Amino acid sequence: MLKVGVFGTGHLGKFHLNNWKEIGGIELAGFYDPDDNTAKEVIEKYQLPRFTDIDALLDVIDIADIVAPTNHHFSLCEQAIKKGKHVFVEKPLANTMTEAHDLVKLVKESNVKLQVGHVERFNPAFLATKNVSLNPMFIEVHRLAQFNPRGTEVSVILDLMIHDIDIILSVVKSDVKSISASGVGVMTETPDIANVRIEFNNGCVANLTSSRISMKKMRKMRLFQKDAYIGIDFLNKKTEVIKLKEPQDSNVFAFDIETPTGKKTIAMANPVVPEVNAIKQELEEFRNAILNNTKTPVSEIDGMMAMDVAHQILKKIGNNSLVHG
Ligand SMILES: NC(=O)c1ccc[n+]([C@@H]2O[C@H](COP(=O)([O-])OP(=O)(O)OC[C@H]3O[C@@H](n4cnc5c(N)ncnc54)[C@H](O)[C@@H]3O)[C@@H](O)[C@H]2O)c1
Predict the structure, then answer these.
(1) Closest to 129 measured CA to CA, from 139, 142, 143, 115
(2) Which ligand 1 atom is nearest residue 9's CA?
(3) Is 314 among the domain residues?
(4) For the residues 230-251, what does the mean pLDDT come to?
(5) Whether the model pTM is above 0.90
(6) How many domains does the chain have?
């Protein structure tokens, strides 16, 4: 049995508690949360011991699950790693690039596994693209949310856009060549809405829009490549693939079209979207990486790379902005 301690049992921490309870080979040992009201709720609902001392909880666990606000990620991760505990930390990995680099170094020098909670990698709509060879040259993303004070201790780039940055870096196997960005803080002092263009060395261009001040929700990514269009709807868990090819799948609608180079078949398919609970899946894969001594699916390096792009974006927005420098 691997013993887990959850650090931060607010909105997302409770989802983690629910999922850990359903994962085999895991025992919840306790939690740490400085908020008395939250702690009372958790004790009542989960009958889980509350620890008021971080070290005392670290001493009785194998895995530290860090679901506290981002500005606490670094110190909690550092304490856990120094005690030789495996770490699952919510996204973004840390608050500053210095912290991210320090964590990567600490993990390298230790014998622990670290995974970052970039949960969209486990979204069923993204998992449905598993059998599609992704080699996009152009990516268009819209991630729009209604305003919620939770998460506003960081900008919309580190709060929402970082999900898409991580997915894009996992798909585009090329280095970032240049970034241009514009954004504005409406409800907070940091950008609440932003548009970003990332150019990669292989010619791929990604155009991302993120907002946390929208009237309607949307989480869509569209990838365009030589032989296919792939649409991923993270919110409604739907995936669409349109290919210039013979239909191979039974779940396909196809029609012919005359082009200057002859007749082509356009095949439209909706790949099967697996019935997966993304949070449970990411935590299970983390457990597996510990048990099998393999690489975690979203490593500290992945977390640092996503943060690096996010911070470059914030710098560009700062340079462009007359109001919020
Ligand atoms: N992966 C995702 O899609 C996703 C979604 C939401 C939030 N998050 C991340 O999860 C983290 C928590 O977000 P949330 O929405 O649950 O916030 P929240 O405000 O609802 O909960 C945070 C909890 O942490 C507690 N806390 C404060 N300081 C602490 C400390 N030093 N140690 C332990 N606990 C502490 C608070 O009392 C609170 O109960 C953030 O890093 C956020 O970016 C990720």
Answers:
(1) 139
(2) 39
(3) no
(4) 82
(5) yes
(6) 2
